[in-house]
């Protein structure tokens, strides 16, 4: 069996496999829970299209349809369902859908997405576009509102019977009623809703609300939902005292057309990249989860299909190891790993080192190649450490330098399910570090097959915008510290400073084109390559003709608007740049050359070789470096260099 040349291949394979299982195996389940009350089914004139009438229910179903169409391309393993409440329509036939609470109707059970399922919803929306009253006739609203406790209970039953146990389960609640239980008995119904919501969250379900607010009917979260849908607090004390229990008013959607845009932000579930123990001291450990804040969006993984005559069936792939000499399959557990090069004996058992002693070490005969088991290779990479994060100490925050950020950081948040009390301890550590302006130094091994890294723990306080909506959650950023060879000097030998007139002219038109007040939504400008790819897949899935000319690249700059806003300012800047004398001199950056490995040796090592008569084993570069350090000549062949080194040691 040939030697295995790549020592790290086993770790890379298992790392890729674990990452693939994390994202591909972790399914996402979304249940749309849509209100069908009188106000949601009321028809009004469309604000953008003249002569077109619509309703809040139509917009909510259209947003659900758009999410389903996208999921069928980028998340074929995910499941979506639609449940309506405050409607008199009842389920037909048996099954758990007929056992839901009164006033709730399961329009689409939770299941894997398919083209017929989406086309069914598209057909209903097409009918409603022709007749705006179609939705109200299909889903008649109830005279009396359904208690929200019954709504959450029905959601729990639907997810319990239809969603995989290991999936990420979420409920998208869409309504325009801010006080569903006004009048007598409201407090009891509010308590019931809160209790059933707790049962829902304990089952691993997250509720994400989309409240519709209009000028004629503004939505106030303080009337009902602030007491039911509590935001996630890091401090348990806040939950006990009721502090922070008010939902911000900005959670409501002022423009119904923004419903789909808001759903796109919540479409991708927040999945932890790793869960690990956080060791703060001896016998003092809490649980944390790590999240990736920046991830490259890629095309979906392709799948193999086999033509069986009657149709195409998905083909399962597996990796098989074959002995080239015997031409037979080899059990992966019997494979050992080694480096190429050196003499190879004829007997593989001898190569592996059959002479194992009681200390679990193998003796390798001279001229034979050492081999290692997968567990040994893994221990080389992990250095025998267990998965976890160990706090080593603290440093001043000023010691965190800009060049320390060479990789994307992870975000740590406490995991109460791993260790009880993690949330409270994590909060106390965070507050103390923020108060003292400190950062933490830690040793982290985030996954079983990863390499240990030293990292900084940068604390982040909870931050909210003017309306009270949390924009920065509390937690720690794990910043992996770079090794020495991760930092390189800039490949530019010279640089010129622009004159003040050029800088001011550039500032003028840049400020003119700057999007102010943080109104730039990155999710609204998708990757054009991925968008074009997904649009073609969507057309193929629904058997539609795709017109490439219909594709719009949203990232393409609007040249007309740029010239209209800052055309004259850009011309003034170009004129100032032309008048700047330093702009005529252009230094091309030096191409980065591949660096050689550091092969330098110290004086003690060279002296040892000289006394042992083995100076010939040193490389020419090593001999020259030593002679240069002693101000000796480096001309001539290797034999001349060896003689010169020997003479230097005789006189010194």
UniProtKB/TrEMBL annotation:
Its EC number is 3.6.4.12. One of its GO terms (molecular function) is hydrolase activity. Residues 344-368 are annotated as: Disordered. Its main location: nucleus. InterPro entries: DNA_bd_Ku70/Ku80, Ku70, Ku70_bridge/pillars_dom_sf, KU70_core_dom, Ku_C, Ku_N, SAP_dom, SAP_dom_sf. SMART domains: Ku78 (SM00559), SAP (SM00513). Pfam families: Ku, Ku_C, Ku_N, SAP. The keyword Plastid does not apply. It comes from the Eukaryota. GO terms for biological process: DNA recombination; double-strand break repair via nonhomologous end joining; telomere maintenance. It is found in: Chromosome, Telomere; Nucleus. PANTHER family: KU AUTOANTIGEN DNA HELICASE, X-RAY REPAIR CROSS-COMPLEMENTING PROTEIN 6. NCBIfam families: ku70. Belongs to the ku70 family. This is ATP-dependent DNA helicase II subunit 1. It comes from Ephemerocybe angulata. The lineage of its organism: Eukaryota, Fungi, Dikarya, Basidiomycota, Agaricomycotina.
